Amino acid sequence: MNKLKVAWLLLGSLMAFQTYGQKSENIALEEIIRQSVEASKQLKTEQTNVEIAKSRYQSIKEARLPEVSASGQIMYLPYAPNIVNKLSQPAAEGSTSSSQGFPIPKTVSLGSINASMPLFTGFKLKNSITQADLGVEMSQIAVGMKTEQVALQTIELYYAIYKTKATIQVLEENIGRAKQRVTDYGNFVQNGLMAENDLLKAKLMKSNLEINLEDAKNSYENLLNRLNIYLNTKYTSLNPQLNNIQKPVSPDSFLERKDLSLLNKKIEQSAVNIELARANYYPQVALTGGFINAYIPNLFTITNALNFGIGVKYNISSLYKNKSEMKTANLQKFYSEQKLEEAKDQAQIETLEAKRKYLLTLKKQEVYEEAFGQAKENLRIVNNKYENGLADTDQVMDAEIQLLQSEINKKVGVADQEIAWYQWLQATGMLLENFKINQ
């Protein structure tokens, strides 16, 4: 009994070793999209831009805090300075020196701390903060746009793998029948019941199917490698699953699209730029303060000379120079509004085309289903005729090729239908909401 347990353990360990590092799963589309969003390098780059915008916003907010600076210097005086003492008696008439009776300093030491806090900047500081905040929102919208692109790219790749694998399965089934036909025809030729030319036709059909199968397998491996790179995974085989659910009709509204939201934010930003340009017409007022220390050896010392007051600055040239900046800011806003209207027209076109494409795939699928049934019935009839000597091998093979193509069309058509559905969602701006992906 113990030996039996040991044998089972060894067998299990061997199987585990053989499958280690390989992943072959029936994985749902939602899980693949989640993995792609988490692993996307493009998204990580966009998210870094969000952090940059947030840091810039915080930096501009800190401009409201007082500006404090400290300075100090020691100066050497190589020549005797001319010192005028206003508190002393007037110098004698004709005197050429105002520093008589004073020691001559060789160095001067100065130190000061100054502080300034803006009180009024013509609303420039307020609008700069608003502009930075809009920059954060725009970078977040850009992340949503990139997330949507990554999700749609993953969806199309997922269904491309499904279609390729479905084609491989159909080809493998038909190759099995083609091999059996070659065997049967070979026996007929050996027994003198069939011409060798018919056997060669059967072999040629089998060879063509095998070539198509190898092409499909190569496409499958390429698609799987691309998916592994995007997801940073190591799937050796993937079995995509169709949703096979009745989907509700997507709305025709496209106002939730990220590109339109981004353009709306650009219009808001342009309006803020107008206010920033207008701020140049206003004076700047700041509260100032500080204290000064000064030391001149053998002459005087000043310590803790506290001072405070209000500083006013006004750029008079802005009265005639700022008109062009105002004009530029207004034109930029008008340009952004025009781009928004242009984008709305394009979004409407894309939404209607995506809707029509989805409805077309529904009609095509109905035709594919009908054609598959007709191809099966046609093959049955042709086989009956062939058995009764009323049809030749060419007709049989043509009927089988038609059945093969109709079966591939039927399986691939379902995937095309679901791809078109998600493309419609993307055109209306609701793709991420459908998968409940945080933006």
TrEMBL record:
Q: Give the taxonomic lineage as stored in the record.
A: Bacteria, Pseudomonadati, Bacteroidota, Cytophagia, Cytophagales
Q: Where in the cell is it found?
A: Cell outer membrane
In which broad location class does this protein mainly occur, judging by the first location in its UniProt entry? membrane
Q: Which SUPFAM superfamilies does its entry note?
A: Outer membrane efflux proteins (OEP) (SSF56954)
Q: Any coiled-coil ranges, and where?
A: 199-233
Identify its protein family: Belongs to the outer membrane factor (OMF) (TC 1.B.17) family.
Protein name as catalogued: TolC family protein
* Transport keyword on record: yes
Per UniProt, which keywords does this protein have? Cell outer membrane, Coiled coil, Membrane, Transmembrane, Transmembrane beta strand, Transport
